[in-house]
Amino acid sequence: MAHQPQPYPLNAEAVRTWSSLSLAALGRAREDIDAINVYPVADADTGTNLYLTAESADRELGDLLAGVTDGTAGASLPEAVRAFAHGALIGARGNSGTILAQLLRGVADVLGEEPDGPGGPAGSEVRDPARLLAQALTRAAEEAYRAVAHPVEGTMLTVATAAARAAEAVAAAAGTAADVAGAAYDGARAALAETPGQLAALGRAGVVDAGGCGLVAVLGALWQALSGREPAPEPVRGRAVPVPRPQEPCAEEHGGPAYEVIYLLEAAETEVDRLRTRLDALGDSLVVVGGDGLWNVHVHVDDPGAAVEAAVVAGRPYRIRITHFGDERRRARGERSQRAVVAVVQGEGLAGLCGEAGATTLLARPGEPPAVAELADAIREAHAREVVLLPNGAELRAVAAAAAQQARAEGVRVAVIPTRSEVQGLAALAVHDPDGSFDEDVVAMTAAAGATRYGELAVAERQSFTSAGICQAGDVLGLIDGDVAVIGTGLAETAEAVLARMLGSGGELVTLVLGPDVPEELSGRLEAYVQHGHLAVDTVTYQGGRWSAPLLIGVE
């Protein structure tokens, strides 16, 4: 890159510009990066994950600057870069987005140092900005490698390391910060061109690494922010290096774990070290990023419940997302559906069950329903033109409507099925037809949910008035369609009373979802109860898993 006589300073305004340009660049490249995504899973979503991660980072930075009276003029470089990195951390999506978040954290670890006094290092008055930037890019690459359980060459980690080395060389030669950024961009592009020869999956598909391609776009935005010069258009949009591809690209069938699990975790670093060991034994593609008590965890596993349980042992997990790879495999074979289902559930077992049925699930803890932004992010992450949303809770109706409205403003067609319980959501999923028309699918799912009466068993926490009378702390409450209908002293007796009332008006199928602390013999007793009094009624039983209610009942 040619030397710029008057480069832009490395300050809060530069970070804001970098963020905006990165988001724009990833937005332009999003579909092309998705198209070349074959590693670690050919799920055609790397570009989307990088874009959503950058979007979260840009939003956090924008919120910071909106609260500063003079905007970027009143914000410091440390404040801006830390907000940028934090936004990426809390919004990181997928393997690539999680690594990008750690790269930005590495940059923030250096540029985010507060000055010791007027004109201190973070203000770039004493320390050379070029040297600072080179050190930041080096720290970024180092921290990204440490975050990945089993680093692989030929990925965005390799591209990040090459960028850092090129940046260090120019900084040592007394270049400007813009020169350092330009060298990092050029070094990344050169390294990206070599990735098909470093990773067999890329070579067979004839593509460069998708995550590395996104990182090149981010580094190009950094150079543009500091130099004022726009990177030259690439021959193939979204690819920093044109790589010949066969006429029928081979997207490898994913033979690994069946689920992707992502969550934020509040935990001490010592606990996170133990968590890494547990998760590494459960699956692959493990990336744990963050620090200072807040972490973003990404892993591919066959047992999503075990991955969440490990998080509970380590600290407090939230924003838990569980995705089954079935849809991703179909997309990789060119069978990508334009429709997706997003379901909110309480219970790890239920999340796995909905995932197997093809839904992207948000696992909610009791008393911690998802916010509008979280549900809107899940809709975006589904990466579909049409989305059916299953809130599975009456209290989530307003949240679901607001999230759907946000998605519609972004061009996604969204229908909210007014499911008030997970058993209604299961009934809707049972008739879901991704290949039929959207309107007919929504009508069928709505009808199936509406035809399912739902019951639930809960334990009273204190004395209170209910629609069935006064209950005492410890009483078992039997709810039907959201209202207390039975007050009992035991789970089995109360469940049978609830079933008797629900089946009094008829039914063909009873669905039982058992909570984690319910005795195993309860399911057999309830199945026998149904068969004894209602010979024509079938019964299916599922395990709700951690955080599910003691018992959910659906009658169709």
Short précis:
49% of the residues lie in helices and 17% in strands. The chain has 19 helices and 16 strands. The strands form three sheets. The chain has an eight-stranded mixed β-sheet, sandwiched between helices.
How are the secondary structure elements laid out?
Blueprint: H1 12-35, H2 46-66, H3 77-91, H4 94-111, H5 129-147, H6 156-172, H7 177-198, H8 200-205, H9 210-227, E1 259-266, H10 269-282, E2 283-291, E3 294-301, H11 304-314, E4 316-324, H12 326-332, E5 339-345, H13 348-356, E6 359-363, H14 372-381, E7 386-390, H15 397-409, E8 413-416, H16 422-430, H17 438-450, E9 453-459, E10 464-466, E11 469-471, E12 476-480, E13 483-488, H18 491-503, E14 509-514, H19 521-533, E15 538-543, E16 551-555
Parallel strand pairs: 5-6, 5-7, 7-8, 14-15
Antiparallel strand pairs: 1-3, 1-4, 2-3, 4-6, 9-12, 9-16, 10-11, 12-13, 14-16
Helix pairs in contact: 1-2, 1-3, 1-9, 2-3, 2-4, 3-4, 4-5, 5-6, 5-7, 6-7, 6-9, 7-9, 10-11, 14-15, 16-17, 18-19
Molecular structure report:
The chain is an alpha+beta fold. The chain contains 19 helices and 16 strands. Strands 2-3-1-4-6-5-7-8 form an 8-stranded mixed beta sheet, sandwiched between helices. Strands 13-12-9-16-14-15 form a 6-stranded mixed beta sheet, with helices on both faces. Helix 2 (46-66) runs parallel beside helix 4 (94-111) and helix 16 packs across helix 17. The chain is elongated. Mean pLDDT is 86; it is low at 1-5, 116-126, 235-254 and 329-337.
